From TrEMBL:
<dbReference type="GO" id="GO:0003871">
    <property type="term" value="F:5-methyltetrahydropteroyltriglutamate-homocysteine S-methyltransferase activity"/>
</dbReference>
<dbReference type="GO" id="GO:0008270">
    <property type="term" value="F:zinc ion binding"/>
</dbReference>
<feature type="domain" description="Cobalamin-independent methionine synthase MetE C-terminal/archaeal">
    <location>
        <begin position="10"/>
        <end position="192"/>
    </location>
</feature>
<feature type="domain" description="Cobalamin-independent methionine synthase MetE C-terminal/archaeal">
    <location>
        <begin position="260"/>
        <end position="358"/>
    </location>
</feature>
<keyword id="KW-0862">Zinc</keyword>
<keyword id="KW-0479">Metal-binding</keyword>
<dbReference type="Pfam" id="PF01717">
    <property type="entry name" value="Meth_synt_2"/>
</dbReference>
<protein>
    <submittedName>
        <fullName>Cobalamin-independent methionine synthase II family protein</fullName>
    </submittedName>
</protein>
<dbReference type="InterPro" id="IPR002629">
    <property type="entry name" value="Met_Synth_C/arc"/>
</dbReference>
<dbReference type="GO" id="GO:0009086">
    <property type="term" value="P:methionine biosynthetic process"/>
</dbReference>
<dbReference type="InterPro" id="IPR038071">
    <property type="entry name" value="UROD/MetE-like_sf"/>
</dbReference>
Length: 367
């Protein structure tokens, strides 16, 4: 699989969120400023040290592609991955009703009150900190355009599609800045695509990535808020108003969440698609085969919702299952989702299990 400017057999990486060092969270300096660390040397040093520690965990595990870990600052990872961007753009007011999306309704829906424009860089500081800490290929993760557009309380544009295209223009500016500064891979985390895709998601994505000198991967997320699966609202459950999307028999057919992104995603100008396999099993891979997916696929083979660390042999078995659907030359390997809900003392060994399992299968392929 092509990673940056080299071909790597079964390249390994993690999806995105990684547990911050505990000394960093909850401190006054655990805040990324809008713009640059110009006057606050303490915050900059702490920020770079935190990312350096996360990079060290990945390098010591042996990952081929190093991630930024989504160090945005603050103590609410699922809030910051949304509000962080809006604080750096014009056109939004950071208040509104609860988000009208399953499981994310505990967060408020930011309100669009004017034309969307990028005002401050989104992830240049993260890229520079990771580049300072490693010479391996670097991947920086962004919250997906579909997520932000769907979560927006829109009082300005005609419809959600126009919101998404406004966001696409702002993100395109940021993507170009990262590409010009040596980012190898940009990953978009889309956790609303499995609920069904309309007529604007791919158009907005393609507008955002246009003209950017960088690889683009999309992580389609099955849900990891507070360590739980995603769910659909269910009117039959009056107590909680929802049922768990993943509650199905092990021999059940491929679920609707994987089918929902096809055939739309076939038109996406991306280099790789990624979603989990480790916890849910290989059924979700059937839509890849059925829809003739011919681009690289990065399979999540580490269960981030379990505190039990897989053995290398268990990971190797999962990889072999994926190879029944995706050829080795087009396959990458990752964690199922972000590791943010796990203690760091468990997250790091899981990265090692990923690398060791990949090594077993590589050796088999190279015979």
């Amino acid at each position: 699989m092509r990673v940056g400017n080299q071909d790597v057999l079964l390249p390994t990486t993690m999806v995105g969120n990684y547990p911050n060092p505990r000394w960093y969270d909850g401190q006054a300096f655990a805040t990324v400023p809008k713009g640059e660390f110009i006057f606050d040397a303490v915050s900059r040093e702490a920020f770079e040290d935190a990312i350096g520690a996360i990079v060290h965990d990945q390098e010591s595990a042996g990952l081929d592609v190093i991630c930024d870990g989504k160090v945005y600052g603050g103590d609410s990872p699922y809030g910051t991955i949304l509000y962080y961007y809006l604080e750096r753009m014009k056109g939004y007011r950071l208040s509104g009703p609860p988000i009208g999306l399953p499981i994310y309704s505990t967060l408020y829906s930011p309100t669009c009150v004017g034309e969307i424009e990028r005002e401050h860089p989104f992830h240049l500081a993260q890229l520079r900190a990771v580049r300072k800490a490693t010479d391996r290929p670097v991947k920086v993760s962004y919250t997906g355009l579909g997520v932000i557009a769907a979560a927006t309380n829109n009082l300005y544009y005609k419809d959600t599609k126009e919101v998404a295209l406004g966001l696409a223009k702002a993100f395109n500016e940021d993507f170009k800045e990262l590409g010009d500064n040596g980012c190898d891979i940009i990953q978009l985390d889309e956790f609303v695509w499995p609920y069904g895709m309309g007529d604007w998601e791919i158009e907005a994505l393609n507008a955002a990535v246009s003209g950017v000198d960088c690889q683009f991967w999309v992580h389609t997320c099955w849900g990891n808020y507070s360590g739980t699966p995603a769910y659909y609202p269910d009117e039959t459950n009056t107590e909680f108003g929802a049922f768990v999307l993943d509650k199905r028999a092990s021999d059940a057919p491929a679920p609707e969440r994987a089918q929902a992104i096809f055939p739309h995603v076939l038109d996406a100008d991306i280099h790789a698609l990624n979603y989990e396999v480790g916890r849910t099993g290989p059924d979700d891979l059937k839509p890849l085969f059925d829809n003739n997916w011919n681009k690289p696929f990065v399979a999540g083979v580490i269960d981030v919702k379990s505190t039990i660390t897989e053995t290398a042999d268990e990971v190797a078995d999962r990889i072999r299952q994926v190879l029944e659907y995706v050829p080795a030359e087009r396959l990458g390997l990752s964690t199922d989702c972000g590791l943010i809900n796990l203690p760091r003392m468990i997250a790091q060994p899981k990265l090692r299990a990923l690398v060791d399992g990949a090594a077993i299968v590589r050796a088999e392929l190279e015979k």
